[in-house]
Write a structure and sequence with these properties.
By secondary structure, the chain is α+β, with helices and mostly antiparallel strands. It is built from two helices and four strands, in the order ββββαα. It has two domains: 50 residues, no CATH class; 62 residues. Strands 1-2 form a two-stranded antiparallel sheet. The longest helix has 32 residues. The two termini are 41 Å apart. The mean pLDDT is 90. The structure holds zinc ion. Zinc ion (ZN) binds next to loops.
C-alpha cells in the first residue's frame, strides 16, 4: 500500500493535511474547502510553498537592483553616444542600447533573486 503521509515543512512531522472549511462569499454560501493545514502545528504553509519574509525582501531587492542597473547602463550608453557625437542620429543604436540595458537589468535581477 502506498504511504500517503507527507512531511510538514514547519514542524517536520509526518502527517496527512487536514482540510479547512469555510464560506467563500458569506452565510448564504455553503461551506466548502478553502485550505488545508498540518494537524500538529496548525500551519497552512506545511508544504513550504509560501515565500518567507526574507525571500520576499530579496525579491524586492532583486527588482530594485535590476531597475537600477537598467537605468544606469542606459544612461551610460546614451552619454557615450552624446560624447561621440552620434546622439539621436542612429535610432537603431539608441534602441539596441536600451534593449541591452533592459537585458542586463533582467540578468542582474535574476542573479540577485537566485542568490
Ligand atoms: Zn506541522
Amino acid at each position: 500500500m502506498r504511504q500517503s503521509l507527507v512531511e510538514c515543512q514547519c514542524c517536520g512531522k509526518l502527517m496527512v493535511p487536514r482540510t479547512s472549511y469555510g464560506r467563500a462569499l458569506g452565510w448564504w454560501d455553503g461551506a466548502r474547502p478553502i485550505s488545508n493545514h498540518c494537524p500538529f502545528c496548525l500551519s497552512d504553509n506545511w508544504d513550504g510553498s509560501r515565500p518567507t519574509i526574507f525571500q520576499r525582501l530579496m525579491r524586492l531587492l532583486a527588482g530594485l537592483a535590476g531597475i537600477s542597473v537598467c537605468l544606469l547602463l542606459g544612461e551610460v550608453l546614451l552619454t557615450l553616444q552624446a560624447e561621440v557625437g552620434i546622439y539621436h542620429q542612429y535610432p537603431w543604436l539608441t534602441l539596441s542600447g536600451w534593449a541591452l540595458a533592459v537585458l542586463a537589468g533582467y540578468r542582474v535581477a535574476k542573479w540577485v533573486d537566485d542568490y
